[in-house]
Amino acid sequence: xxxxxxxxxxxxxxxxxxxxxxxxxxxxxxxxxxxxxxxxxxxxxxxxxxxxxxxxxxxxxxxxxxxxxxxxxxxxxxxxxxxxxxxxxxxxxxxxxxxxxxxxxxxxxxxxxxxxxxxxxxxxxxxxxxxxxxxxxxxxxxxxxxxxxxxxxxxxxxxxxxxxxxxxxxxxxxxxxxxxxxxxxxxxxxxxxxxxxxxxxxxxxxxxxxxxxxxxxxxxxxxxxxxxxxxxxxxxxxxxxxxxxxxxxxxxxxxxxxxxxxxxxxxxxxxxxxxxxxxxxxxxxxxxxxxxx
Amino acid sequence: xxxxxxxxxxxxxxxxxxxxxxxxxxxxxxxxxxxxxxxxxxxxxxxxxxxxxxxxxxxxxxxxxxxxxxxxxxxxxxxxxxxxxxxxxxxxxxxxxxxxxxxxxxxxxxxxxxxxxxxxxxxxxxxxxxxxxxxxxxxxxxxxxxxxxxxxxxxxxxxxxxxxxxxxxxxxxxxxxxxxxxxxxxxxxxxxxxxxxxxxxxxxxxxxxxxxxxxxxxxxxxxxxxxxxxxxxxxxxxxxxxxxxxxxxxxxx
Lengths: 293, 253
Fold this sequence. Notes:
The structure holds two protein chains of two kinds.
Chain A: H1 33-37, H2 40-61, H3 70-110, H4 115-129, H5 133-143, E1 147-150, E2 153-156, H6 159-185, H7 188-196, H8 201-231, H9 243-254, H10 257-291
Antiparallel strand pairs in A: 1-2
Helix pairs in contact in A: 2-10, 3-4, 3-6, 3-8, 3-9, 3-10, 4-6, 5-6, 6-8, 7-8, 8-10, 9-10
Chain B: H1 3-7, E1 15-24, E2 27-37, E3 42-46, H2 53-60, E4 68-73, E5 76-77, H3 85-91, E6 92-95, H4 107-117, H5 123-136, H6 152-164, E7 170-174, H7 182-197, E8 201-205, H8 209-215, E9 218-223, E10 226-231, H9 233-238, H10 243-252
Parallel strand pairs in B: 3-8, 3-9, 6-7, 7-8
Antiparallel strand pairs in B: 1-2, 1-4, 4-5, 9-10
Helix pairs in contact in B: 4-5, 4-6, 5-6, 6-7
């Protein structure tokens, strides 16, 4: 299905040399949306998850008549889980936005001509890139006060906002590295021609270099978002409302051990359905941009 | 207006190099280069690779710094730390071997960008000028093409138009045909010849000896960071005096 035979050198084309073909030409061609979403692998995984829930139900329900079936239990809690998942999405989107903004700035500082700035940005990047996300979350919870007073107005600083800050730090660090790498991959001739046309360094960065880095950063950025979304359940550990916390509440309300595994499987499905299209789109973009020079 | 603008008059050399020295680390590249170029002159710098030709013209618009000597462009001291670089870049345009067009902008946008963004000129006027320049380099109809859609020769001509859009007094050409197919070399050379005929001061680093002989008012032959020999093309190519020049010419002609 995925593998295609390596094409034989075409003797009819003069000068045809198989060696000179890019290796990528042997990879599967880009899938369209329908094929990507409804290929056997995807469907198998999703259905396996669903069937496991149902079979698990039947198996566990043996000898316990009078109990609600597991699918109906899952259905009953779905609105609450959806609300929890909404928090996960909200936290991931906000962290991504904040982290991207800071990361782009930090990445630009990493190529600053000023030694001190460059090294400082490098240090910050490396520090947060090599820190466990959960530890950063704990620090965000511990270090940020639960309310802030600005101009005499005291505002609460809710936990989910602290979680956003905690998660945006590693996003910032990863973005910083992506941006630095992409900036450095732009040929130096671009800097020189812009300089000889009178562009200042800032103008060159803004109008010439950064627009050229977008294509290169985009797949990494989307991948980072998928990873971040999958990391959002960490916030339940520090007591912020999310799908994991709500699942635990639902489970303790039901008090039925047999619902435990189906329900967590159900939660996994939510994440899979949200993240898988993103990773598909990422690999499509990567394939498209990797061929073009 | 800077004071230095007042000092320079058209009867003085428009570009004047005095004992220019430069090294990359401990490797000397330019070992005391002196030359004067008058307004409207076309000079070609030739020489074996690694002789410092490209470094020399990159020093003229301050892309490279120098360690000794001085470079004056219309009275501006190029390597004065207090130099207004923008003032210099308005006077000196440069075209590179690798074209270096901005790949995310169309040909027209490439030409318009610097006057609009750097000089803050009226976009409508700049567009009119840019379209004229594109016509001048014989690329009508390619205004909305991206660099990736143009051939090397076409890209190089857009690069020339882009430089001219800043209305420079001096144009630097750094081996602009070295990366081109033989067939497209000519179209770029014709463009440069047109410019030279209009009285643009041109400094070219080139390997096209036939072209140098045809358009140059003066040829400089450099080797190991010094000017070995120079003179008007007729005499230079017919009767080279220095043995190094002779050896080089015998290899490339």
